[in-house]
Amino acid sequence: MTDFCFRDIVALRPQLKDGRGRKNHLVVSPTRLRRDSPTRKLAKLIGYSGNGGLLLVVGCVANAHYVVWGSTTTNSRGNHLLEYLQTTDLNVLNQGAAPTFVTARRQEVIDLTLGSFSIAHMITNWRVSDEPSLSDHRHILFQLNLSLHCGPCRFRNPRSTDWDCYVAKLSDRLDRPPLLCRKAEQVEEAAALVSDAITASFE
């Protein structure tokens, strides 16, 4: 797939067989996002996979913060990325909030596994590895089970969110008056309370 091989995006198209010998065409793409919105190259790859009925998995160094996928904060890049994902067939397959980026000064979730709707239920045992990666970014591991053509799966699909229910739950969790913050520690505590409430309400 030389049409989708650039500095920040590479695409592979392995042909895999399930337990019954049926062939499945899969597109796998490690991608780095450098701007507020995905590049036209990634959008073109998403369109190519969708039009061809191909399974798509994108390993994305997003550098975007959003509590929806476990980040401790939300920034403009996270907002732009979530808005873009809502226009596509891709879902965030991250599970939990284990940090994917770790340095001596901070830990954060900025690396995402994105998958087309048709492959989301085939991704199982998604996790962040504790093994040294020789990088600030930790290894992300998961299993792809092509025999799982149906059945329930767990993934975050913001397009299906019941926002009225979300607002109600968030209001219940934040029904106490805001803390009067006079010290940095109090600000951090208040921010953590709000972040936890947002994440718990969404889940």
Q: Which CATH first-tier class of the largest domain would you pick? A: Alpha Beta
Shape: globular
Give the topology string: H per helix, E per strand: EEHEHEEEEHEEHH
Count of distinct strands: 9
What does this structure look like?
There is one protein chain. By secondary structure, this protein is of the alpha+beta class. It folds into 2 domains: 2-148, 4-Layer Sandwich (Deoxyribonuclease I, Chain A), CATH 3.60.10.10; 163-201. Helix content is 28%, strand content 22%. It is built from 5 helices and 9 strands. The strands form 3 sheets. The protein has a 5-stranded mixed beta sheet. It has a two-stranded antiparallel ribbon with strand order 5-6. Strand 5 (101-102) and strand 6 (107-108) form a beta hairpin. The mean pLDDT is 81.
Characteristic key phrases:
two-stranded antiparallel ribbon; Deoxyribonuclease I, Chain A; five-stranded mixed beta sheet; single chain; Endonuclease/exonuclease/phosphatase domain-containing protein; 9 strands; alpha+beta; 2 domains; 5 helices; 203 residues
